[in-house]
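Q: Hi! First time doing this. I have a protein sequence and I read that you can turn it into a structure. Is that right? Here it is:
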Amino acid sequence: MSIPKHVIIIGAGPAGLTAAYLLCKKGVPVTVLESDPVYVGGLSKTVQYKGFYFDIGGHRFFSKSKEVEDFWTEILGDDLLIRNRKSRIFYNGKFYTYPLKAIEALRNLGLFTSTLCVLSYIKARIFPVKNPKNFEDWVSNRFGKKLFSIFFKTYTEKVWGMSCKEISADWAAQRIKKLSLWEAIKNAVFTSENSKKNSGEIITTLIDSFRYPRKGPGMMWETTARKIQEMGGHLIMGAQILAIEHNHVTNWKINYQVNSENLSIESNHVISSAAIKDILGLFKPELNTALLSAANKLTYRDFIVVTLMLKDNHLLDDNWIYIHSPTVKVGRVQNFKAWSPEMVPDSSMMCLGLEYFCFEGDNLWELTDNALLELGKKELCLLGLARNEDIMDGCVVRQKKAYPVYDEQYAQNVTIVKEELQSNFPTFHLVGRNGMHKYNNQDHAMVTAMLTVENIFQNKNAFNVWEVNEDALYIEDGNRGSESEKAGTGLRMTPKRI
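A: Yes, that's right. Below is the predicted 3D structure, encoded as structure tokens:
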């Protein structure tokens, strides 16, 4: 086991800060470069506005990885609340509890539509699409074409801005995993207390409770950042990377700018959670054309949160609601008071986050903040979730590169990037959602960082970081591999050779 002299970490999101914290605990000097001048946490940051706290989306703290759960407990301890999940789907003017409750769904859909759904499901089981390549075929195999059109098509196309036939089946397989119509019904009707207690058998899409920081997920990463600095690590906010100089093997020099001042720093390892297409274009000497072309073909979906502060009308106690109605642009509504009462400074008020999915530069993205606030108010009232006179204030947050897009060519392009870097730049490590172009959860991003730290210390790639969240058993079976035990990592993941 070798101890690196210094590690530069690009990005202060969950992956970057997890790596920095673990390296600091091992006595390794680290420097974290974060482009945001104010917030750490990346997509898991918590924004503050006039005493209100709100997230960029919603972030449940639940993992099948004991190491991740232990990390969260170590950082925040009693500041983590236990929250009961409540989420619903809004479709055709009615609310459907999600996960599915069979009797409620039958009542809301009506006997005729419900019968068509069951028949469609039976047909899909008897005559499935063989080797489904796109999202529509994969989900239809699991739920039937009728339920796909009701509960998946509209929302998914809002999120991604493309036809479900253009979205890779990889995304469905990764996000929905083992969930099917039958599993959802079993969960609603037959779930026992014993099965709830055995987290190894829980389908994460269906979990009904989770932990959550009192002041939002940003509290986790703000505390982590503070502890990194207390251990001697450096965190530089507002750092814009200008160039990444390399000699292909051990030495790295990062040129960056802070407050118009040009600076540089050197290391023998770099860990990056920044978007692949952004970071590889900064390499000096320039990378080969094929690699840069593959990186530049990776695309992202951007995100706007229109947050409205209003008088608590007691209509909602959901954590979030999926909006499947095609009559409005909003895709999901977060109720931050239901995540934690401390997110709202006045108990007579509530704070709702309306989520809009878009591409940077499109018509929605280019709307002014005032226009977006008016759109949010109009749609919230149209959905019957508020009265206009109760809405007191609001603000807008735009988030670039929120979701890596799984189009038909993404896997091929990621493979080109991965193989080139592993072969020629073994001390440059990609981690996290955008760093690996994987639509993973916060805990999966953290696991990629944990395994990367172990790879650096072992000076070999004992763990295949790229298989995290591709093969669920790799991070979720809870079994130690013999090589992991010998290495003394404490990680429950079975190592797989690259």
